[in-house]
Design a protein that fits this description.
Blueprint (H helix, E strand, L loop, with lengths): L3 E6 L3 H12 L4 E7 L2 H10 L4 E5 L7 H8 L6 E6 L5 H6 L4 E4 L4 H17 L6 H12 L11 E6 L2 E6 L5 E5 L2 E6 L2 E5 L3 H7 L5 E5 L2 E4 L3 E6 L5 E5 L4 E4 L1 H11 L2
Parallel strand pairs: 1-2, 1-3, 3-4, 4-5
Antiparallel strand pairs: 6-7, 8-9, 8-12, 9-10, 11-12, 13-14, 14-15
């Protein structure tokens, strides 16, 4: 198994020492570097490749958020924020951090984070992240390379088993916190991606977000019911009825006219 190359960034020596010690007990992880401030982090990322970055939010010079802003989210390794303050958690996920750890870091919580890192790396080839999509769109706007194909399969990790789910077989997708539940026939699969990320990744000609918590495969839609000017519903060929917002109805109409 490939050992994860980790970079630790924290201005507190004791915090770095604790994280280094905890990671040293993980056979699959190699601490390949340590940084004391944002400037050193940026230099290290430009010089070497790392699989995961444990990034302290509050550091002298440039804080963790400023590091990501300067390097660019698309160029960052899997990033785990380390903080003494829970109020930074929401902001951490807004800049696409994979996870966050609260000081003092506990062994069990760190192990759960490493599982998430492995999942992200394993699914990277199968699912384009939101930031990668932004990069592709930016390239197109500037006359760059042709559009990258939308994924045909999604890799779903479940314990020691990985499952490839054919995108064309997905009937609808349901939001479940930081997961997305993929409904395929009588089966369902939990993918560790938000529904917002999937909506930006899947082919918009085939998958439409009809509600803030629902994406539907338009080829599976049988009937559409509208209730005045407000919300309505969509009935799939299987008989499954799904909620539809006004914006969702407009999106469906837009797709049907293309």
């Amino acid at each position: 198994m490939h050992r994860l190359k980790a970079l630790i960034a924290d201005d507190e020596p004791l915090a770095r020492e604790r994280l280094r010690f905890l990671l040293s007990t993980e056979a699959e992880v190699e601490v390949a570097g340590e940084c004391r401030n944002g400037r050193e982090v940026i230099a290290a990322l430009k010089k070497n490749r790392f699989d995961v970055l444990f990034l302290d939010i509050q550091m002298p010079g440039k804080d963790g958020f400023e590091v990501i802003e300067q390097v660019g989210a698309a160029n960052m390794p899997a990033t785990v924020f380390v903080t003494a303050h829970n109020e930074y958690a929401v902001q951490a996920f807004e800049v696409h951090a994979l996870d966050y750890l609260t000081k003092p870091v506990e062994p069990e919580r760190l192990q759960a984070t490493l599982v998430r890192v492995r999942e992200r790396i394993a699914s990277h080839a199968a699912l384009m992240t939101q930031e990668q999509l932004k990069s592709v769109l930016h390239s197109l706007e500037n006359g760059g390379a042709p559009r990258q194909a939308h994924p045909k399969h999604l890799l779903v990790h479940n314990g020691s088993k990985d499952t490839f789910v054919s995108v064309n077989e997905i009937e609808w997708i349901e939001a479940a916190d930081y997961y997305a539940c993929l409904h395929v026939g009588a089966k369902s699969f939990m993918l560790r991606e938000t529904i917002k990320e999937l909506a930006k990744t899947l082919d918009p000609e085939k998958f439409v977000r009809i509600h803030r918590s629902v994406i539907v495969n338009v080829e599976q839609v049988k009937e559409i019911f509208r209730e005045g000017q407000g919300e309505g519903s969509v009935v799939l060929k299987t008989g499954q009825q799904l909620r539809m917002s006004k914006a969702g109805w407009q999106s469906l109409v837009a797709v049907s006219r293309r």
